[in-house]
Structure formats: C-alpha cells, structure tokens
Amino acid sequence: MYQILIVDDEPMVKIALKTLLNWEEFGFSICASASDGKEALSLVKKFQPDIIITDLKMPVMDGLELIKALKKQSYPGKILVLSNYGDYEYVRQALKSGAIDYMLKISLNKDDLLEQLKNCADLLSPIQNTRESSVYDPSFNELLLKTYFTDTDFTYEKLRNYQIQENSAYYICYITQPFQKKFTNKRGEILSPSIIKNLLLENFNYLPSDSFIQMNINSFIILYPEKTAAETELTVWELGQHIYSCFSQFLSLSLYIIVTRTALHLEKLKDIGFKCAEASHSCFYDNFSPVYIDELSLQHFFNFMDYRSFASELLTSLSKSEHADSIKDFDLFMEKCKTERIHPEILKSYIYRMCSYMELTLSASSYINLTELQTSIETCTDLTELSLVLYEFFTQIHSFIRNDTRFYKKEVVECICYIQNHYHEKITLTELSASIGISENYLCKIFKDDTGTSIVQYIHSLRMEKAAALISENNLMLWEIAEAVGINDQFYFNRLFKKIYGMTPSQYKELKKCKTNDGLKTVPDFNKFTKG
C-alpha cells in the first residue's frame, strides 16, 4: 500500500482529492494532509509517504520551496504537482526541481489522477522492491531505464550499480503526441501505451526489447544502439520515418518524432530525454516528423505589450470594424509568436488573460462563457486551431459591442430596435427617421458616431447574419432565405453575402453540410473571409 501526503491550503481541494476515488481499492492510502510546505515537511518525517501531491502557491512555504527542501533531504518518494491554468512557469520550475508530473486542478478527474499515481508507483517499484542482480533481465532493465529517464534524483551513478551496459552508445528516437493526455488516433480512439509498445516490438524486432521506454502516458523514448544502426545501415532519422509510417498505417495515429544526430552514452542522454519532452511542444507551429532535436527551440519569454494594453487595442479595432473576420494587429501578433517560437503554454496563458480582460472590460459575463473559452484554448493542438478559437471569440465580442446599447443615444437604440424588428421588410431611411421623429441626416450622424458603422452597413450585416443562421439551421431554398431577410433580388443577395462572408451562399451551405457530416464543430473559416 503506497502512502500519500496531500499538501494544499484550500480545504475544498483536499476534500475533493480525498473523495475523488476509493484509494485503498487501487493500492493507495492517504496518510495525512497539510496546508503549507512547512507543515508538510514535519509530516514527511513522521509518516514517510511514498507520494506527495502538492499545490504550488501556498502561504508560509510554497510548493517550490517544499520540493527543493525535499530534494536536499534526499526524499526517496515521488512528487506530483497541482496547478492552476496559467502557472506554467511555476510548473516548469517544479519539474526541473524534481516533480514527476503536474495536474491541472480545473480538469482533474479520477482517471487522470489514478494514471498519475500508477505511474509514480511504477517508478517506485524497481527501486523499492527489487534487489541488485547481475543477471540480465530485459524487463528489469527497462524499469531501471524508465526510472533513470523520468526521475531527476536517480543519477547515472545509481544506474551503474545495476550493471547496465554503460559502454554502449545510443541515438534517441522520441515519439509522442503533444497536447494529448493519451495517445489518440484520427478516429478519436484512445490507445493504451501497451498497444504502442506491442506494435513497436512486433515491427522493430531488430531492436533489444528494453529499448522502448515509456516516459509517460503519451510518450516513449527509443534507445537506438549505434551498433544496430551500423549493422542495419538505417539512420536514426530513417528509423523515425519508418515508425511514423507504421503507426499512421496500422493505427491511424499521427506521431511527433524527435531524433538526435549523434550517438551518446547513457550518462549524457538523460538531459536530452528531458529536452525532447520540452521540445515536442514545437509541433504547435510545425508538425513535421521526424525532426532533429538541435533544430528545435522554444522561447519562454517574448517582448510584447502587456495583455491589458493589447486587449484594449483589440477592443478598439473591433468597435471600429464592420466585421471580426480579420484583425491586423492580432494576425501580426500570431505571426510574431510563430516566428519567435513562443512556448505554446506561455502563449495560451497570455491569450486567455487577454480574453478575460476583454470580457471584464465589457462586463459581458452573461454573453461570454470564459470556462468554455479556457477549455477551448487549453486543448488547441496547433496555431491554426488556436486562431479559429480566437476569431470565434472575437466574433462574439464584435456582436456584443454592436448590440450593446448601454451607451447609445436613445434615438440610436430606437433605430436599432426598429431595424431588428423589420429587417425582413423593405426599410427606407425616410420611414426609419420618421418612426423616431428626427431628421435623416441627424439620425445617420448619431448612428455612425455611436456604433462606428452606417445604418445601411448595419442593415446589411444583420440581414446576412440572419441568412447565415437560416442556411445552417434549415433546408430552405436560397431564394426563400433571401426573401426571408428582406431581399427579393437573388443576384444582389449572393453578391452581398459573398462581400461579408467571403464565399457565396451555396459555398457556405456546402461548407456547413460537410462539417456537420464530419461531426465537427461549425466554425467559419476566417482565413477565407475578406473585408467588405
């Protein structure tokens, strides 16, 4: 029975963890809980827990200080970190200081917690339960190598005590699926690590069975002996190519593969293994495989304006633009991030804070679901997907600004209400101004001043928005939809729709049909839109 110590200053978090699963059923037991690092150190001495689950931000002594203190004391157990979204820099320091892995509080569930606990137990078992042996045992060797590559405290000197073949040189072939909690194929099926390993063993049987080392739930390190590379005349890059093709063909699984240029001894490979895990996030920008580790680098800091200032600039641009399909400042920002290879977690954290500030500035909590937005941002696997999520958010913000009448003149509010109630009819400026009781010129002026757009442009945008909704939700003929939004000229309707959406109504209808059949979320392709 593995003993667990929970460290968190929030009582509700500790209660949630304790009740998340039946601990004893899976071979674990909570021996104690603490509210800060200082209290935890005293409990570690008293209970000697095998696994510590700790928060990072706590009073008195935080999680980072606790991890460093445990390392100084040569704590033999394993440490898991609990973090909030946006705490990436703290998490990075924690992993560097000796934590095994981290879990996000917002998305923590029973299966993920249990998977992490079992991973810790696997790392503990070869060291705690197995005696030194001079007999070569592939499974034992694999456990030792897994411990060596995943545990910062398990040094090369400790590895040598188990008589691992230290004179051999190896290339590294690192396979993973970044931004996925588990290996997931193109059909959405989750594949267990055992399936991945079995396919490797079956198709690459010229490699020793202990060459395939599972780093975590969604990554493996393959140690490719220099001697084998020479005998097979197969470079490590070519090995990576074969692995990529094999998994694509048999499992419909798209892998990201990183390889080393030179073969090194185990003593020098441990740091490279950690670097591969970090560098794998580069696939956020370019998903080409295989790729050499020395060609990958990510920046953890970037020189850009404060997220609050950028949010304000974007709000200004959105308030002045007729559509939210293209924002020059944001497009340049994303291009800059791609060029400078900003770490995806840093980028996502910055963007979420920026979006939160935009929502807060507009007091749009009833209109924008920040929890859903956070999840959408967090689960993006590449820059294109992130851009689509953001432009969908900008569309919501743009719509909110356009319909937010809190600061409009009374006459402008009345004008908007009239248009929304009569958009399906013929609307003339004469009738509109007469219904409000002011002159046409004055109405046009105050409408433009308050909304940033003309009355005619507002009517066009509203009608096309209603038309797009009808195309998505109904099987009406396009001429029927045109008449339903107050336009009797089919040719004019097509031209106006294309001006706003960048495609004809027929093309838009086909796009929606394809995405619905594929079971995909309907998101406009903003890259095809043009300003009108």
Primary descriptors:
single chain; 532 residues; alpha/beta; 4 domains; six-stranded mixed sheet; five-stranded parallel sheet; 11% strand; disordered C terminus; sequence-specific DNA binding; Stage 0 sporulation protein A homolog; Tscrpt_reg_AraC-type_HTH; transcription regulation; CheY-like_superfamily
Short description:
This protein has 532 residues and is of the alpha/beta class. The protein has 23 helices and 13 strands.
Provide an overview of this structure.
- 54% of the residues lie in helices and 11% in strands.
- It has 532 residues and is an alpha/beta fold.
- The chain has four domains: 2-123; 138-295; 307-403; 453-531, no CATH class.
- Strands 6, 9, 10, 11, 12 and 13 form a six-stranded mixed sheet that branches. Strands 2-1-3-4-5 form a five-stranded parallel sheet, with helices on both faces.
- It starts with a strand and ends in a 15-residue tail after the last helix.
Topology:
Blueprint: E1 2-7, H1 11-20, E2 28-34, H2 37-47, E3 51-55, H3 63-72, E4 78-83, H4 88-97, E5 101-104, H5 110-129, H6 138-150, H7 156-160, E6 169-176, E7 183-184, E8 190-191, H8 193-203, E9 212-216, E10 219-225, H9 226-232, H10 236-251, E11 256-259, E12 264-265, H11 266-279, E13 291-292, H12 307-320, H13 328-340, H14 344-362, H15 370-378, H16 383-403, H17 410-422, H18 429-436, H19 440-451, H20 455-473, H21 478-484, H22 490-501, H23 505-517
Parallel strand pairs: 1-2, 1-3, 3-4, 4-5, 11-13
Antiparallel strand pairs: 6-10, 6-11, 6-12, 7-8, 9-10
